[in-house]
Design brief:
Keywords: Cytoplasm, RNA-binding, Transcription, Transcription antitermination, Transcription regulation, Transcription termination. Helix content is about 35%, strand content about 30%. The protein is of the alpha+beta class. Helix 1 runs parallel beside helix 4, helix 2 packs antiparallel against helix 4 and helix 9 packs antiparallel against helix 11 (about 330-340).
């Protein structure tokens, strides 16, 4: 391959892969400097320039303009510099061409090695930039395979995200959710790390952010900011509570999230494989907010202790088990959603 063919091939590669042309040529020029010094054993300061149209390669020894020369490999006198060009002054750098006759062959060999490496680096950087912009967002992916973790009953799920694969580890898997090869699912990107082997994408199916972003996709009023998600409490695979609010008196924030015939919330539930979702109205009044958060249970009264951030809630006798929930889940999620400690009693218990 001659230098013209080399340049044409490089330009084709950078165009095809979307890599910055300057990055590749600068990397190649730097590699050729090293190749020149290695092959021709010089301690001179050297630069290489590649003509990006013709493919011609020129090697220059660079010398600093000085009053008195102490090293003629690195320095040139002001008198000699001005013979080359009168504009030169002290401390300027003068280029002297030292291109060997057979340097094209050396260049071609060097290019193959350095360019392949630099292209890989550039591709990794492009991928990193692409995914780092999606941090704290959701992405669709396809399950490639399921791998059992040695000496355990747990599995890693290998997920393909376009040009890259990543792992959905057990802690980020929804409990009791089945993963099968070929499944297309949505994942929440919690973190994107830069590594020497390319970006490491950390994904989750359990993060509350997944629910938030799913509602933003399904509910136009959330996407355009009319309805705001104030808080989310989630026990992945079982139940989520989401508190919503709007300043627009003409909009029902919970109704907007439920959607016509419940279609919006049902789409989110379907993506989460049947996870129950309670949509409650946020209020700046803590008593009202806590009562709403205990939905679907009905609340008789809420007594607030601001100092201890504690709430005593009274519910009808027949609503007590519903308010507390199975294994305390409803009360636990309500407390997490509101940020208040909640003590629930039935009307009979409250009278004692």
């Amino acid at each position: 391959m001659n230098t013209v063919e080399l340049i044409e091939a490089l330009k084709e590669i950078v165009k095809e892969k979307g890599i910055d042309e300057d990055f590749i040529f600068q990397a190649l020029e730097a590699a050729l400097v090293s190749a020149y010094k290695k092959n021709y054993g010089t301690s001179q300061n050297v630069k290489v320039a590649i003509n990006r149209t013709t493919g011609e390669i020129h090697v220059y020894a660079q010398k600093k303009v000085v009053e008195e020369i102490t090293n003629d490999l690195l320095e040139v006198s002001l008198e000699d510099a001005k013979k080359i060009n009168p504009i030169y002054e002290l401390e300027d750098i003068v280029d002297f061409e030292v291109t060997p006759k057979d340097f094209g062959r050396v260049a071609a060999q060097t290019a193959k090695q350095s360019v392949v490496q630099k292209i890989r680096e550039a591709e990794r950087e492009i991928l990193f930039k692409e995914f780092v912009e999606k941090e704290n967002d959701i992405i669709s992916g396809m399950v490639q395979k399921i791998e059992r973790i040695k000496d355990t009953s747990k599995y890693n799920v290998i997920v393909e995200l376009g040009k890259i694969e990543t792992i959905l580890p057990p802690p980020e898997q929804i409990p009791n959710e089945d993963y099968n090869q070929g499944d297309r699912l949505k994942f929440y990107i919690t973190e994107v790390k830069r590594t020497s082997k390319g970006p490491n994408i950390v994904i989750s199916r359990t993060h509350p952010g997944l629910v938030k972003r799913l509602f933003e996709l399904e509910v136009p009023e959330i996407f355009n900011g009319v309805v705001e998600i104030k808080s989310i409490a989630r026990e992945a695979g079982s139940r989520t509570k989401i508190a919503v609010y709007t300043r627009d008196e003409n909009v029902d924030p919970t109704g907007a999230c439920v959607g016509p015939k419940g279609v919006r919330v049902q789409n989110v539930v379907n993506e989460l494989k049947g996870e129950k979702i309670d949509i409650v109205k946020w209020s700046k009044d803590p008593a009202e907010y806590i009562a709403n958060a205990l939905s679907p249970a009905k609340v008789v009264s809420v007594e607030i202790n601001e100092e201890e951030r504690n709430a005593k809630v009274v519910v009808p006798d027949y609503q007590l088990s519903l308010a507390i929930g199975k294994e305390g889940q409803n009360a636990r999620l309500a407390a997490k959603l509101t940020g208040w400690k909640i003590d629930i009693k039935s009307e009979s218990q409250a009278k004692v």
